[in-house]
Design goal:
The structure holds two protein chains of two kinds. Chain A has twelve helices and two strands; from the N terminus they run H-E-E-H-H-H-H-H-H-H-H-H-H-H. Chain A is mostly helical. A two-stranded antiparallel ribbon of chain A has the order 1-2. In chain B, helix 5 crosses helix 9 and helix 14 runs antiparallel to helix 15. The chains are: A mainly alpha, B mainly alpha.
């Protein structure tokens, strides 16, 4: 268009035929809407993921600068170190204990509070109240109640003649004690899930079953549980991931002790990174945790798909 | 006698008994579940001497309301509260903005590479926070943002979960609305702001309530990036309170009770919306 390079004021305005405005490619506008999210996710998820992989093959200085390439040595060290394997075992025990017990308790509470009785809404609110208990709040309250000398739990036990328990300082008890707190704090979440699941079971199914002469056990076994299985499955998958990532309770109540009895994986990674300042080794351990969670979730889906009844 | 029990469920007396048993069960379990909270309130009203007494007094003989004033004097309780509210509010606002924009792109636009980009977004939900924690800490430290609000909020301003949640809400909005709006000369951004967002209000509230609560409960990240007392959030405040106050549980519990109020109010107000957010698939701790 050489003629428009002339002085714009003298440019002939009407002589040129009106060309349709050139359309921008179709991805320009949506990309603008995606930019803020992409920017944050790139800096704080994608880049760190790559960076963790990279760091896991290096010895770093305390500033996090990679100094010496060591290949897979950190992974080999972790998978042959008693301490790391022990922390994986502690986490596994924690998951096996807290997830099923938590879901069973929540399911019982939901079954107990599903009937349309007067005032049932108040009980439903109370049962979901642990939702507003944060880690630090819950852990500090139980730290006080678990106090071996003046704690109220040992007092209640003494009323029925049970000797004092060293809840958090006895290696045999500590993980169960912390797990109990975790189950309680998680109960609100699980309860809300189970209650919503129960409320979504069509009432006609029960009515039809009654006509066929089913008793309440039949109804629970053949209607409620199958209809609730997707909810239970979801709670189990999310619960396992959550329980593998437990940290706050441990940090506040036991510090991984006594003698590593509550040294869960995330606490182990935290110590490696932020107390020993060995970012390379800690990165390798975090990646192993990632792999464990991925494999477990995959198997849960494999097994779950066969058990779960979708409508 | 055996006939009566067999028919138990259908006679009026039997049904009454069932209801009474249910109520007893409800009251007992509700009490057990609330006991830690009730106990925290009771201890927060005790005298210093009563706290470490054994057997513990089950009721404060002379409620010490001044414990609340005392802990507020010795610890910057309101500063911690302000920090937590500010951080949670900024993260919530930020996520609503970024997730609305991204969710809009993924629901109302057709473009090349949409499928791949969406899969890329969703894949971030699989990555546990611990895996990205170390580089994120190093990033925030190298930007000299430790113990600042940007350091506390930046990594959480956008999530795949929020994008996905809002996209699901946006997809329920009829397409005809967009055609009609465009004929009336409404630009696409204006369509988002003046039509899509108001229609998706329940979705925005759900995302907001859920994000606020999970940010409020964050523990590990604020622990890593706060070195100064003034920048502690409520959670970190409680943690260090126990170091500083030792066995003075009456003061610690007074602070704990104060710190529980905002989350409790949020639960009372937004329970319905929270439930929806949790149902949509909450993975964050």
């Amino acid at each position: 268009m050489p003629e428009v390079t002339a002085n714009p004021a003298t440019r002939p305005r009407t002589s040129a035929p009106v060309r349709p405005a050139k359309r921008a490619p179709d991805w320009v506008e949506p990309l603008l809407y995606l930019t803020p999210s992409l920017l944050i996710l790139t800096v704080f998820v994608f880049y760190p993921l790559v960076r963790t992989l990279y760091l896991s093959t290096f010895l770093t200085n305390p500033l996090g600068v990679p100094k010496l390439f060591v290949g897979v040595e950190h992974f080999v060290n972790a998978l042959t170190s008693d301490q790391f394997l022990h922390s994986l075992w502690v986490s596994t025990q924690f998951v096996l204990y807290t997830v099923p017990v938590g879901i069973l308790l929540a399911l019982s509470l939901a079954l107990l509070s599903i009937k349309p009785l007067r005032g049932i809404k108040i009980f439903q609110l109370i049962f979901s109240s642990p939702l507003c208990i944060s880690v630090a709040t819950g852990a500090s309250i139980f730290l006080m109640m678990y106090n071996p000398l003046s704690g109220v739990l040992n007092y209640f036990l003494s009323l029925v003649g049970v000797p004092k328990v060293s809840w958090l300082t006895d290696p045999k008890v500590a993980l169960w004690a912390v797990g109990f707190v975790s189950i309680w704090m998680r109960l609100g979440f699980n309860y809300v899930l189970m209650l919503s699941g129960l409320q979504n079971v069509p009432q006609e199914l029960y009515e039809a079953a009654v006509v066929d002469g089913a008793n309440s056990w039949h109804k629970t076994r053949h209607i409620t549980l199958p209809m609730l299985s997707p909810t239970i499955f979801f709670a189990a998958v999310v619960g396992v991931i959550h329980a593998f990532q437990i940290f706050g309770e441990i940090h506040i109540m036991t510090g991984g002790g006594p003698s590593d009895a509550t040294n869960v994986v995330v606490f182990q990674v935290y110590q490696m990174a932020f107390q020993n300042w060995e970012f390379g080794a800690a990165s390798a351990q975090a990646l192993i945790l990632f792999a464990v969670i991925l494999v477990l979730t995959y198997f849960q889906f494999k097994v779950g798909e066969r058990q779960v009844h979708y409508q | 006698m055996s006939q009566a029990t067999a028919a138990g469920q259908s006679t009026p007396i039997g049904r009454h008994m069932g209801t009474i048993v249910t109520y007893v069960g409800l009251v007992v379990t509700a009490f057990l579940m609330l006991f830690p909270l009730i106990w925290a309130i009771i201890v927060s009203l005790m005298k210093p001497g009563e706290v470490n007494q054994f057997p513990p007094p089950l009721w404060p003989t002379d409620p010490q309301w001044q414990n609340y004033a005392e802990v507020a004097r010795s610890v910057p309780v309101f500063r911690y509260l302000f920090n937590s509210v500010a951080v949670s509010a900024i993260v919530t606002g930020g996520q609503i903005v970024t997730a609305s924009l991204a969710g809009y792109a993924f629901s109302f636009f057709k473009f090349r590479a949409k499928g791949i980009l969406f899969a890329l977004f969703m894949s971030t939900m699989m990555v546990p926070w611990e895996v990205t924690m170390i580089p994120n800490f190093l990033t925030i430290r190298s930007l000299r943002l430790t113990s600042t609000y940007p350091g506390l909020v930046l990594p959480f301003l956008a999530t795949a979960f929020g994008t996905f949640l809002l996209r699901q809400f946006f997809l329920t909005i009829p397409r005809d609305l967009e055609d009609a709006a465009r004929i009336d000369g409404c630009g696409r951004f204006r369509f988002l702001v003046s039509i899509v967002l108001p229609l998706a209000r329940p979705g925005l509230i759900t995302l907001g309530a859920y994000t606020f609560l999970s940010t409020w409960n964050q523990y590990l990240w604020p622990l890593l990036v706060t070195d100064t007392k003034e920048m502690r959030t409520v959670q970190i405040g409680i943690r260090f309170l126990m170091n500083e106050e030792g066995q003075q549980f009456h003061l610690i519990m007074a602070a704990v009770v104060i710190f529980m109020i905002p989350a409790a109010l949020l639960l009372l107000w937004g329970q319905k919306y929270l439930v929806r957010g949790l149902m949509a698939g909450a993975v964050k701790g």
